[in-house]
Design goal:
By secondary structure, the chain is of the alpha/beta class. The protein contains 13 helices and 14 strands. The protein has a seven-stranded mixed β-sheet, sandwiched between helices. The N terminus is likely disordered.
Length: 404
């Protein structure tokens, strides 16, 4: 059983094209990793990278049946650079690339994957535009349609909100998720009082938030990446906005919440299920290993990176001779795969079959499952009522004794 990491190809397979065309068995399989390790989306890419590296180390330590090698490169949070690096990875013989931490990068990289007819597997891109974009594209995060629909239903049915103002960055990810939310919210009977679009990387929201307050909505829905959302929340709190603040998984990273601090308390967001305190043994194992390796708690993006590497390794076990067979391997071999972000399986479009939940940020600045928290609060209320009822009964009994 080979365990070493090697970049040497078996004699006779001089180039990747030879492997693909002739089906020659490689001595090792290279996987490229293209994620943003610097720039605006660094927090997402770095978390993805850590999860990917941890999973890769475990795959090798467990005695993987073929030699694997990964090469990690920094996209600089630049979609064009991400595509160039992906193509360079494929030119260097990579069977597949893990990348597209954000939707803008994934969108550019898909064209490169199609050019080489190789797989691009994204840990966390969610844009609705990516559905059906390519048979070579797969992703571990559910489409923004599911997140927008989930939040709209929850906002109207559970939070009983009737009006919302939407603030959205003018980029594909934010536009996709806000449109899904807006459409679903109005179908529920709610009213979108206004959609305010802002350029990406906007930092001064003072005037825009004044506009929001004049509209007097019960809630605001914020669509964008973590830096923009953090600035929006900070300004809403400064202006003492009293309504609900709703947003997306882009604000779920610890760095985003830390940037806002206690102003993040009470913010409601949708996120794929990842529960570090889960009772499942494989989740506990991941969280423990991540803490030991990086001395910090894993977030959703680290968990998605981890699952991505594990899923790819599983597919490659059976479909590693030809790079062109890998899409079929992802469809055939990944059936209810036990990921740390839930059961994983791809549909015919390469989208993962997952459904997000709604979370609220507590005063401990941690994410709490809103439904579970609601149930816990209801149980506490019932217990308190029972306690009050018992005290009243005791008082009546004592009063009766004194009267006797």
């Amino acid at each position: 059983m080979k365990r070493s990491i090697s970049s040497t190809w078996q004699v006779g397979c001089i180039a990747a094209l030879a492997i693909i065309s002739q089906g020659c068995e490689p001595d090792s399989v290279k996987i490229g990793v293209v994620v943003p390790l610097t720039g605006d989306h660094q927090s997402y890419g770095e978390a993805n990278r850590r999860g990917i590296q941890l999973a890769f180390d475990e795959v090798i330590a467990d005695g993987y049946p073929i030699e694997l090698e990964i090469e990690v490169v920094d996209s600089l949070s630049d979609p064009t650079k991400a595509r160039e690096l992906l193509e360079a990875q494929f030119e260097g013989g990579a069977f597949a690339v893990i990348g597209g931490s954000v939707s803008a990068e994934a969108k550019e990289m898909i064209a490169g994957a199609d050019r080489f007819e190789r797989v691009l597997l994204s840990p966390s891109a969610t844009s609705t535009e990516l559905t059906k974009a390519s048979r070579n594209f797969f992703r571990l995060a559910p489409s923004d349609d599911t997140a927008g629909n989930k939040m709209a239903d929850f906002a109207h049915r559970v939070l009983e909100l009737e009006t919302v103002a939407i603030i959205s960055e003018d980029q594909s990810y934010a536009q996709g998720v806000q449109r899904a939310f807006s459409s679903a919210f109005e179908k529920q009977g709610g009213q979108v009082v206004e959609v305010i679009e802002v350029p990406p990387n906007t930092s001064d929201f003072a005037g825009l938030m004044d506009r929001v307050l004049t509209l007097e909505p019960e809630s605001v829905y914020l669509a964008g990446y973590e830096t923009g959302i953090a600035a929006m929340i900070g300004e809403l709190r400064r202006l003492n906005f009293k309504g609900r603040i709703l947003t997306t998984h882009a604000f779920s990273s610890p760095s985003a919440i830390a940037r806002v601090g206690q102003n993040a308390e009470g913010v409601v967001l949708t996120q794929t299920v990842f529960e570090p305190d889960s009772d499942f043994a494989h989740v506990q194992s991941f969280v423990r290993a991540y803490r030991e390796k990086y001395d910090e708690e894993p977030d959703l993006f680290a968990a998605e990176g981890y699952d991505t590497m594990k899923v790819l390794a599983k597919a490659l076990e059976k479909k590693h001779t030809l790079a062109s067979e890998l899409p079929r391997g992802l469809w055939d071999e990944i059936k209810e795969f036990p990921g740390v972000t839930g059961s994983i399986q791809f549909n015919e479009n390469g989208d993962v079959r997952k459904f997000p939940r709604v979370y609220i940020i507590g005063n401990d600045l941690l994410l709490h499952d809103y439904s579970k928290r609601l149930e816990e609060n209801q149980k506490k209320l019932i217990e308190k009522q029972k306690e009050i009822q018992k005290r009243l009964e005791d008082l009546r009994k004592n009063a009766a004794k004194l009267g006797g």
